[in-house]
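TA notes, week 10

Several of you asked for a full example with nothing omitted. So below is the full record: structure tokens for the whole chain, then the designed sequence directly under it. When grading your own attempts, check the secondary structure regions first.
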């Protein structure tokens, strides 16, 4: 009997290349974002088919607020429409939507759409789809430090008790396992402030494909590359 290939429990994706895709096709940047929605469906379908239990998508970073106001408004509208349109199918697939990041800065309409999607998909057991929305890893770590400092000031936490576990439990991602595999499309080889703590031992994969062109075959290829990696976590591999 042949050994089964190792499958990542948690895959995280930096969906990069929408703007460049639009430019290559002579379109406005917003058109690239629209074309970036179908690959999300593709990634969800491929994750379920391969037995991945958690899929995190870098949907909107805190740095994205620096983009032109009209682009941000269009992105918010696209997000609301996409969430509303996709929720019934996600429910059918057994997908639960969750969010990490600071949602307080979003318009009330966006917050309501997200909360509704989380409620309506709460029973999903096949896959947890985590949307990193208004997310910044450095901001997340600063927030965790504040939360721990507040507990120390309140006398409910001894500074000597602050270890890696305490920090991890103060992060947005506390309910979820760390990613095993981080994919960034478009060929850029950086994490861009995404899950820096959580990705300490993740395998990194940087395909050249721009996000709107991402296919199930690309997802499968990423998993094949993952299966070929030797994950030692600082230990010595036994022969």
């Amino acid at each position: 009997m042949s050994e089964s290939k190792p499958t990542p429990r948690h895959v995280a994706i930096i969906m990069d290349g929408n703007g460049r895709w639009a430019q290559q096709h002579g379109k406005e940047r917003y058109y690239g974002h629209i074309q970036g929605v179908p690959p999300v469906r593709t990634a969800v379908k491929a994750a379920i088919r391969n037995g991945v239990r958690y899929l995190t998508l870098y949907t909107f970073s805190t740095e994205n607020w620096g983009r032109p106001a009209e682009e941000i408004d269009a992105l918010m509208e696209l997000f609301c429409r996409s969430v509303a349109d996709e929720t019934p199918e996600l429910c059918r697939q057994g997908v639960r939507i969750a969010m990490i990041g600071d949602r307080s800065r979003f318009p009330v309409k966006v917050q309501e759409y997200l909360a509704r999607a989380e409620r309506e998909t709460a029973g999903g057991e096949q896959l947890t789809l985590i949307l990193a929305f208004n997310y910044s890893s450095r901001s997340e770590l600063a927030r965790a430090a504040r939360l721990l400092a507040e507990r120390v000031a309140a006398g409910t936490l001894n500074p000597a008790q602050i270890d890696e576990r305490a920090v991890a439990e103060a992060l947005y991602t506390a309910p979820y396992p760390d990613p095993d595999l981080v994919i960034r499309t478009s060929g850029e080889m950086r994490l861009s402030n995404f899950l820096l703590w959580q990705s300490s031992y993740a395998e990194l994969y940087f395909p050249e494909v721009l996000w709107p062109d991402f296919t199930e075959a690309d997802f499968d290829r990423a998993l094949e590359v993952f299966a070929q990696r030797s994950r030692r976590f600082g230990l010595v591999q036994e022969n």
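The first helix runs from residue 18 to 24. Use that as a sanity check on your answer.
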